[in-house]
Amino acid sequence: MSTRLIGVSVLALATFATACHKKVAAAHPPAPPAQTASTSAANRPTISLFAADPNAIDRGSATTLRWSVRNATDVSITPAVGAVNENGSREISPSDDTTYTLTARGPGGSADASTTVTLRVQASNMPNAETRARIQDLLNRIQDAYFDFDKHTLRPDAEAALQADAKTLADILRQYPEYKLTVEGNCDERGSEEFNLALGDARAKSAREYLVTLGVPAEQLLTVSYGKDHPACTDHDEACWQKNRRAHVTQEQIAQAR
Q: Beta-carbon neighbour count of residue 103 at 10 Å?
C-alpha cells in the first residue's frame, strides 16, 4: 500500500472518530421533583382557632383559651402555658392584661396566632347608670360592619360604616379613659361551631384594627367572637345571613359580668 493511501485511510478514521465523539450528549442531572414546594405548603401548620372565651374578665376570675391546629408536631402557648396538644382548651387566670401567643411547628414550616385577655375595671371606676344609658344611646346609632360569606376582610361598605362610627367611639372613650367597649364578631348559621368561632374572632379583630387606625384608643377596644350563637336574624335565607355576618360594637361585656 502506498504512503499516500495509508495517509488518506488514517485521516478518514480520525474524522470518523471525531464525528462519533461529537454525537455523545453530555449527561444532565435529574430535574428536582416538581411537587416539592406545593407539598411543603400543603403540610404547613394551620391554626383554625385560637381565642379566649371570654376575653374580658374581672380581676381574680378565669377565662378559657381554646385552640385547634392541624399539621403540627410541636404546639406551644406563651406566656405560662407551655406545650399543648393540637386541639384543646385551658383555663387561665391572668393577673393583668395579657396577650397569649400560640406557635405551631411542623415539617412544612410554622404558624402563630395571638389573643388578648383584658381585665375589666372595677365597678367603682365605671360610669354610673345614667351615663351608661347615654353611652348606649350613642352606640345604638353605630353602624355594623358587614362581611362576605366565609370572609373577614373589610369590604368598602364596611370601611365606610366604621369611618362613620370612629369619631363617636373615640369621643366616648376619651371622655371615659377607664371605660372599654367590645367589638363582637358574628357569623351566619352555616358551618361548624369551631369554624364560626374562628371566623367571628377574625372579623372582630379586622374591625377593631381598622377603628384603631381611625383614632379609637386601642387599649379600650376589646374583641369577642360569638360565632353563630348571637344571630341578629333567624330566617334561613341570604338576606338574613348577610345581617348576621357582622362586627358589632357594644358595651354589654363591660357593663355586665358574664
A: 18
